[in-house]
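Everyone, describe these structure tokens:
***
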Amino acid sequence: MDAPSFDGARRAASRTGIKHLTSRLKPIHLTLALIVVVGAFMAIGNDQFLSLYNINTILDFGAILLIAALGQMFVILIGGIDLSVGGTISLVSVVFITLVHRIGYWAYPCCLALGLALGYINGVILTRVKIPSFIATLGTGGIITSLAYLVSPRPVSAAPGDYWLLDIVNGTVFSISNVFIIGALVFCAVAVFLRFTRTGRNIYFVGSNIRMAWMSGTDIAQSRNVPFMISGVCAALVGIIISSVRFGGDPVVGTSYVLNSIAAVVVGGTALTGGAGGVLNVLFGTLFLSMLDNGMNVIGVDQYFQQAIYGAMIIFGVAVTFDRKKTPIIK
């Protein structure tokens, strides 16, 4: 064999080996690698990054984002998107603080019911009015945000006499914060729902191939409504938690959670086209974003430069975790 043909064969074998290796790596493995690399870089930049206090801070912040991202995950699994998450969080934030002073503990179920109702409206617009979820939730998100301003055009603080009512969120159990426990419970509930219920399995089925799901007798309307309702409840729970932690509500507090919840889902490797991904993908995607956000503050990155780094890391994270086999055409 002459030299040129030998080199060509060697390059072909090398490409085959790399392709075989990358085909065996799942998006979640790449997300884990990103977590390790970013964590190591932050730890080198500041030795307090891995301190117990800072780790608890990352986990508590991550638990809040995880709840919002898990709700967003349901919608993305059916091939949709929920842009009203931020509006729901903001509305519930001010409504909760207003209600907790008047009706006490009943404010918790009332606000969760409000999130459920808002999610149901989004689902109905998609399934009955036949408007794509991007446009539908963009519109309802604006309406809900306006409602938040109508309830309270400025931040509202909880009365000192109502602080004890917020201990459900602000308390601890065996030195573990209730925020973290709530996030863990939601994670477990979502995992069980997706794996062991017919509706959970149908969500994957509809997201993978809606035509085949319809031909097999799957209730398409229900399978597309439920994700939006769950997303609404998760957003409402986030609004309650944020208000309790801050001892006050804010009509714009949910703004950042729209893109962050989507980023956490996609960076973890859940396909935007639907039908692929799951709770572990969202968990690691959330951990990556929480670590990145906290780490930039710990190592002293300029706040005006943080958003640029955050955006670049999201693009990089999606680039290395996105499963292109499930999306042959990028639109």
Summary: Residues 17-22 have pLDDT under 50 and may be disordered. The two ends are 45 Å apart (CA to CA). Residues 61-279 form one domain.
